[in-house]
């Protein structure tokens, strides 16, 4: 009788409860003793709520308040992880110093404003954030599920700058997608793009050194199914190359409208196998995405680079060549005669 194959027991997804709603006008005090007044609700995630907010003062919080407060029950974990990321990586002076050293006018990393705990009907954890505008997934859908080649090139350059900053500060994002990319809210920032939601952000380079490559089926398939990395599908700790791979799938979807494995998003093993199959044969991936053969050359080169980085386990700890990847899109803009004026077509 053939041996029975042992089934790997996958860990159950964590269950997070939503917090009790806050009342407009309620005041929260952060860890630096600054007070913030809460306005109306402006959004809801899988585990928390978002409220418009402003520094405490007379009057109500108006609809155009430039801050939001994100809250969750204190027993939940995602916002705790996100606050930890911001404290280590996104303090305002850190971002300012990086931009000055790189001679940049903008970096798509939200600034840490404040955080704390609040005692009410239930104990809450909260974080004060800059307020942002529409997300790129909604813009993508409004544009007929395709962005122009110019827009994709401009977005790629900006997002590679953002990822380089995160990676150089020991973190990976691990969940890059249009719904986590937000335009600025104010008049001065409405053409800027920010990468948000660091609930899955992972410190790949702790004090002890880079994490080791180790597959763990119990931790497999973290992230957003259609975009998540091959490493994530195998339960390997997130690393820099995973962010590069995920970004590649996002850029590809923006250009062609739909990824070839989006027909079966409920089957994560299928998604893993499809991605690995196509990474081993980039021409077949491009044929599936661009039947007319009109794939932009910069996208092909980006995916060729990604394939080499991802398929070789010995390159797991390798620092991606951000300059090379940005150069692909910079050259494409120049060759086409397009100017990166910071104004998108969508």
Automatic annotation (TrEMBL):
<dbReference type="Pfam" id="PF00069">
    <property type="entry name" value="Pkinase"/>
</dbReference>
<feature type="domain" description="Protein kinase">
    <location>
        <begin position="36"/>
        <end position="346"/>
    </location>
</feature>
<feature type="binding site">
    <location>
        <position position="70"/>
    </location>
    <ligand>
        <name>ATP</name>
    </ligand>
</feature>
<feature type="compositionally biased region" description="Basic and acidic residues">
    <location>
        <begin position="212"/>
        <end position="224"/>
    </location>
</feature>
<keyword id="KW-0808">Transferase</keyword>
<dbReference type="GO" id="GO:0005524">
    <property type="term" value="F:ATP binding"/>
</dbReference>
<feature type="region of interest" description="Disordered">
    <location>
        <begin position="212"/>
        <end position="234"/>
    </location>
</feature>
<comment type="similarity">
    <text>Belongs to the protein kinase superfamily.</text>
</comment>
<dbReference type="InterPro" id="IPR011009">
    <property type="entry name" value="Kinase-like_dom_sf"/>
</dbReference>
<dbReference type="InterPro" id="IPR008271">
    <property type="entry name" value="Ser/Thr_kinase_AS"/>
</dbReference>
<keyword id="KW-0067">ATP-binding</keyword>
<feature type="compositionally biased region" description="Basic residues">
    <location>
        <begin position="1"/>
        <end position="16"/>
    </location>
</feature>
<keyword id="KW-0723">Serine/threonine-protein kinase</keyword>
<keyword id="KW-0418">Kinase</keyword>
<dbReference type="GO" id="GO:0004674">
    <property type="term" value="F:protein serine/threonine kinase activity"/>
</dbReference>
<dbReference type="InterPro" id="IPR017441">
    <property type="entry name" value="Protein_kinase_ATP_BS"/>
</dbReference>
<feature type="region of interest" description="Disordered">
    <location>
        <begin position="1"/>
        <end position="27"/>
    </location>
</feature>
<dbReference type="InterPro" id="IPR050235">
    <property type="entry name" value="CK1_Ser-Thr_kinase"/>
</dbReference>
<keyword id="KW-0547">Nucleotide-binding</keyword>
<protein>
    <recommendedName>
        <fullName>non-specific serine/threonine protein kinase</fullName>
        <ecNumber>2.7.11.1</ecNumber>
    </recommendedName>
</protein>
<dbReference type="InterPro" id="IPR000719">
    <property type="entry name" value="Prot_kinase_dom"/>
</dbReference>
């Amino acid at each position: 009788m053939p041996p029975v194959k042992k089934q790997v027991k996958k860990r159950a997804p964590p269950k997070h409860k939503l917090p009790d709603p806050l009342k407009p006008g309620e005041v929260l005090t952060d860890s630096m003793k600054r007070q913030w007044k809460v306005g109306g609700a402006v959004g809801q995630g899988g585990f928390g709520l978002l409220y418009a907010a402003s520094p405490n003062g007379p009057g109500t919080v108006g609809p155009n308040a430039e801050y939001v407060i994100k809250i969750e029950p204190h027993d939940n974990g995602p916002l705790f992880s996100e606050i930890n990321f911001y404290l280590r990586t996104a303090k305002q002076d850190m971002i300012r110093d990086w931009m000055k050293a790189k001679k940049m006018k903008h970096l798509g990393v939200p600034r840490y404003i404040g955080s704390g705990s609040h005692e009410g009907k239930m104990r809450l954890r909260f974080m004060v954030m800059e307020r942002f505008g529409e997300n790129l997934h909604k813009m993508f859908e409004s544009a007929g599920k395709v962005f122009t080649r110019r827009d994709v090139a401009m977005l790629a350059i900006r997002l590679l700058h953002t990822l380089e900053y995160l990676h150089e500060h020991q973190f990976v994002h691990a969940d890059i997608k249009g719904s986590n990319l937000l335009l600025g809210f104010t008049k001065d920032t409405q053409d800027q793009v920010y990468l948000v939601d660091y609930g899955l952000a992972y410190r790949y380079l702790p004090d002890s050194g880079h994490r080791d490559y180790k597959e763990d089926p119990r931790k497999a398939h973290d992230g957003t199914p259609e975009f998540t990395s091959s490493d994530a599908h195998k339960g390997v700790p997130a690393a820099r190359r995973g962010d590069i791979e995920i970004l590649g799938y996002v850029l590809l979807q923006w250009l062609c409208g739909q990824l070839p494995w989006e027909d079966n998003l409920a089957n994560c093993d299928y998604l893993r196998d499809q991605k690995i199959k196509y990474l081993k044969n980039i021409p077949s991936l491009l044929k599936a995405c661009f039947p007319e053969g009109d794939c932009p050359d910069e996208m092909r080169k980006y995916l060729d680079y990604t394939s080499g980085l991802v398929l070789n386990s010995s390159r797991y700890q390798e620092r991606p060549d951000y300059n090379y990847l940005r150069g692909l899109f910079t050259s494409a803009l120049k060759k086409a005669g397009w100017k990166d004026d910071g104004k998108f077509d969508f």
